[in-house]
Amino acid sequence: MKFKALTAAAALIVAMPVMSLADPDDDQLVINGDLEITTKAAAPAHMEETGIDTIMSGWHFRSDETQALEMDDFDNPGMIFVDKAIDTWNAVEGSAGKSCASCHDDPSSMKGVRAVYPKWNEEAGEVRTIAAQVNDCRKTRMGAETWKYDGDDMAAMEALITLQSRGMPVNVAIDGPVQAVWEQGKDLYYTRTGQLDLSCASCHEQNYGNMIRADHLSQGQINAFPTYRLKNAKLNTVHARFKGCVRDTRAETYKPGSSEFVALELYVASRGNGLSVEGPSVRN
Amino acid sequence: MASGVKPRVKAPKSAAAGEVVTIKTLISHKMESGQRKDKEGNLIPRSIINRFTCDFNGQNVIDVELFPAISTNPYFEFEATIPEAGDMKFTWYDDDGSVYEDSKSIQVG
Fold first, then answer.
1. pLDDT over 60 (residue A15)
2. What EC identifiers does the entry list (chain A) (predicted)?
């Protein structure tokens, strides 16, 4: 009898469609009941050889409870940091006696910025991330001390700037002057590192939707950064996440803000062209 | 006073008489447990919100005691029956004696 029951159970398992527990869901992300977010989109043309035809926000890979935290700004703990950044935005700092607001008025003037960064800065002759731009502003225009690249102040300010573009499609340029950097980022994406010999693609291209120990592997999209993580109860920046990932391959990591990570950010951002800017988001 | 403390409340602006409404509250607070040590090995003194209350027109709705195991930025969500129009008063009590307040008016009709 017991044997029969076991056989029946085994048969049931075999009969179930091949679907892993970690597969992304089909929920729809609507924030505050009115802002529809594009969390699934057709892959951009440059991803043709990757075999991915639909790009997906990491939101789809999280549990219903975690997803719900992002659907109402009051429930989203990332908004606490946005509030702090608004105070910082208006606070005068540095030898020039200026605040962010002195030049940029209201934070809403930053609308659209997050969607196109990292981007080429003609004057500096380099690819700039938002964080690099913020620190450049602090140093040269405000005469203030620069922030730690992936520190709390920077993460909060990035969240405030990101929020202004929330819902707009990510659209970073990959050609023209940035092309060389983009190619470098692509190389890094496919370069295996560390004792575990893993590249970004090993997990986020070939194995998204599978479990990595107890966690779900997403496509590694960065459209939703900065991200409030339940595990450390604070906002996390893209470069801090890159660092964590590379460290997990048991490699020496590049530094947040380094040219390598800037290139990787540009490349990974371009893999999300078409998804909505979603930050500040909530993940576990 | 602990730094960066800011109370937030989300409540409906109006309700039908006798309706049960959902109230959400959150206060940003570091909720230092008193168990952690700093780099030199000295105990960081406890600094938490130890009590939270909500009153409606002077009548108590909830009264909560908080303890050190509650994590940073404590969030409370609860339901309340609104019998008549009035003011909902929220109060948070800090270990250091500070009291943070917020209030919301709710119309009936």
1. no
2. 2.8.5.2
